[in-house]
Specification:
mainly alpha, two-stranded antiparallel sheet, two-stranded antiparallel ribbon, 15 helices
């Protein structure tokens, strides 16, 4: 909204032209979301306490977690609110990529809200039936993927080409059939959403890597979508994305505004979610933020890079799949408890140690993901 206001105002006041630049709007969106979260969180947490919106604790979870029973949850609602408001204020609202990612984010947030509400009303850790939750997620992701690949958001020459990390996109990308790519994109969004959800088991454990990954995708979206011109050794002018041998997708630079908003809202929330947490994110936060990251990866054609950047989430999800599968086959466990962060708790690691070390791993994986921009 403010983008369009300043665009109109430029014809009368030349100085406000700075607010039309993407970089300025990224910073403004991050600050807006951060301030909103900081200011509203104390009031929001108090309202949650007054309404006794407390977190149910898994009966089979680590013993140290029982002291957390009753801690206000559904704090992800505030992240979602700040994220959406900041994005709408500072992004170009004529951009289809922005609306697509926001729709997916809010849609998954509504599923998470329903799941959290059932957990609270039933006073246990079981919410929506798994088949209902996954079914609704798949429906939203599938509809979004169909729209994305059948609309004119992508240039037809790159629409169905899959970027392969560390390879020249313009000579070594894989071309997929339309149906296959739509199904693949759906799996990416649903898988990322649930992977973040599984990671959200300790104070600040999930939101930290979400902020880190959002920063990486801020850079991806800006580089892949921007029209910045660079010069080669032969003084030939080329777009930055083509110089780096990554896909050039006009319009995706506006998703960097979304990422900036996510970073700001995440930092604001982390102030209250850090150990010992005053509020938990809940499924309304973890499902929506994970889906948002997955949708950005699909929109920027960096789905395979997401496996590296979000490697922590991948490992957490795989640990659950392996644990369940192995137990069904042998009635034995590989890990002391899944997801993986609980395994280290059971081994005697203090919760803050698990959290910080997982953050460090996330930073390392983010650097590997960023390396794919240059090592081609």
């Amino acid at each position: 909204m403010l983008f369009h206001f300043f665009e109109w105002l430029t014809q009368y006041v030349s100085g406000v032209n700075v607010f039309r630049y993407t970089t300025t709007r990224i910073l403004a969106a991050a600050l807006t979301a951060m301030v909103l979260t900081f200011l509203l969180s104390p009031w929001f947490i108090k309202r949650l306490r007054d309404r006794q919106v407390g977190q149910p604790i898994r009966e089979d979870g680590p013993e140290t977690h029982f002291v957390k029973a009753g801690t206000p949850t559904m704090g992800g609602s505030l992240i979602l609110f700040s994220l959406v408001i900041a994005t709408l204020l500072w992004s170009n609202l004529t951009n289809g990529f922005v609306w697509l990612v926001l729709t997916v984010t809010v849609g998954f947030g509504m599923i998470g809200f329903a799941d959290d509400s059932l957990k609270i009303s039933k006073k246990n850790s079981k919410g929506l039936p798994a088949i209902v939750k996954i079914g609704l997620q798949t429906l939203i992701a599938l509809l979004a993927s169909i729209y994305l690949f059948r609309s004119n958001l992508f240039d037809p020459s790159v629409r169905l080409r899959l970027d392969i990390p560390f390879m020249n996109f313009y000579s070594h990308s894989a071309s997929l059939p339309l149906v296959v790519y739509i199904l693949f994109a759906t799996i990416v969004v649903v898988g990322t959403s649930n992977a973040v959800n599984l990671t959200d088991g300790l104070d600040g454990l999930a939101i930290g890597p979400v902020i880190i990954d959002a920063f990486v995708y801020l850079l991806f979206a800006y580089i892949i979508g921007s029209s910045i011109i660079v010069y080669t050794n032969k003084f030939d002018a080329v777009v930055l994305a083509k110089y780096l041998l990554v896909p050039h997708l006009v319009g995706t630079e506006e998703l960097s505004i979304y990422c900036g908003s996510l970073i700001g809202a995440g930092i604001g929330f982390l102030w209250f979610n850090t150990y010992p947490a005053s509020v938990f994110m809940g499924d309304v936060g973890s499902l929506s933020l994970g889906a948002g990251l997955g949708a950005i990866a699909v929109a920027t054609k960096t789905e395979l890079v997401l496996v590296m950047v979000g490697g922590l989430f991948v490992v957490e999800a795989v640990s659950v799949i392996v644990q369940v599968g192995y137990f069904k086959l042998t009635h034995k466990r590989i890990f002391l408890m899944a997801p993986l962060h609980h395994h280290f708790e059971k081994k005697g690691w203090a919760e803050p140690k698990v959290i910080v070390r997982f953050w460090i791993v996330s930073i390392m994986l983010a650097l590997v993901g960023l390396a794919t921009l240059k090592m081609r």
